[in-house]
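Why do we bother with holo predictions? Because pocket geometry can differ from the apo form. Keep that in mind while you read this record for zinc ion.
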Amino acid sequence: MKNWKFVVVAAALIAGTAVAQQDAAPIAQQPKVQPAADVAPVSAAKPVSSSPLTLDQVVDRMIQREHALMSFLRTRTPLVETYLQNLKRDPELGAAPKDDRYFLGRLDLSSTVERRDYLSKDESFEKNLLGGMGKLFKLEYDPMGFSWMIFADRDEFDRAHYDFKFIRREFLGDVRCLVFDVTPKKDSGKGRFLGRIWVEDQDFNIVRLNGTYAPRPKNAYFFHMDSWRLNMIPGYWLPAYIYSEEGDFSYGSKDKLAFKAQSRIWGYDIKKRSQENELAQITVDSVKDESVAAADPSPLAAQREWQQQAEDNVIERLESAGLLAPAGDVDKILLTVVNNLMITNNIDLPGQVRTRTMLTSPLETFSVGNTIVVSRGLVDVLPDEACLAMVLSHELAHIVLGHNLGSKFAFTDRMLFSDQATYQNFGFRHSPEEETSADAKALEILKKSPYASKLDSPSLFLKELSARAPEISALLTPHLGNAFVNDKGQLVRMSALATSGPELKPDKLDQIAALPLGGRLKVNPWNDQVDLVKAAPVTIVSVRDKMPFEVTPFFPHLSRMENPGSVGTATAANRAPQK
Ligand SMILES: [Zn+2]
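The structure, written out:
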């Protein structure tokens, strides 16, 4: 699999940033599950690990911690995104996407798990994709359904309703876990969790849940889910990833429903962070006031100042709505590529170009003033740096050509809308004419850049995107920027590149035109920071391994937070000594 090593080379040659260099040696952190040597069940009386607890006490502690997590999250309203691909049987590819759906909302964890949607009714995919089937699927694909497994059982997770059977010890990443099978007691009611839980062996928090709910109601499905939590704050493991999959493609199977879906949860700390921003804002404003008298701006300078203000307002608003990651290392990598394009093309702009990462999956880019925004999903599927340069060159072209959008957002009243209404209030779509001229300029920039000799891969990427467009229209529907394809699924972005270059050969194993989702960036669900995934390349052995633009299961490398010394009162007592 190709890598972004060129970023490092280019950075060392041109920009020399320390951040990109850190990236030079990807640490092989393959998700690993190592069953511990002692697979045999431990009797209830025998202490587990070095902590003086019996298994019964472990179960009690775990139930206690689960309730502590529920009350800790009661005031939180994280974002939850579900991206679903319906599957069909394909003779070459096996189970392959047939169509797709996208949901984005805020979870209210106060009493019941409730979900408010970001996408307006008009943008809902029932209308566009499911046609006459809408009603049936609506029942089955209630977006809520994918959020259930945030907790094992919201209401009655206790010994009165469940049996817990210790299975073994097992490592998930760096974290040693105790594995239990959980079964609802007889007549304990409907919709009880049935499956397996992994409990870390220091504070006894659940870190992974795998299973479904039982008994199944007559007219609905409970999906199977694999739910993962991350230790991003002391003492708590936050629900972050849920993978769901249904359908059996074995010969003779009669399963009607076949799909795979990824749900991601982030933005747990949004409320608090926006309050901090307000405080920071006050300080900055008072400093500004004192320097205003220093110089009077020219009309052009005033115009630029105005645009800068609009740009800052929009970026800040998107960040406080939980849609944009805070500025970080990934942005610096994107900026290195932009700098490579600018330096080799002698582009000199009055303002500093900035790059930011949007936290959502749909493949989109847009720019506000001098800030280029790229979605996480898009960065995920790009196979190499030349493709990233292709994506960024289009937005850089808009900036160079002065296609500035969004100056109306310099009026701060236009920032006063609910987070859920972000997509209705913001939009940075260019006219078709501006799109065409940006494409032409982008191609010119690329041909003078260090990526000029590497344009085969962006060409293949666009061909693959174009070929897959009918099956992934939800993933290709942008919410703030311009689309790669039009309503007919025809490629409209950088199409000149797609009509030249090598032929797309899906059966050629060394031709990787696009990657599956989730392979590049990981999001910290607490503070929304994005980081590069440090995965070692895995050899592709068949066409079915390529999975361009596809959803795959999650297997995060679990580790405990660093600095356990700062745990304070948030943790349960009796920390077991480190192994
Ligand atoms: Zn554009």
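The longest strand covers residues 94-108.
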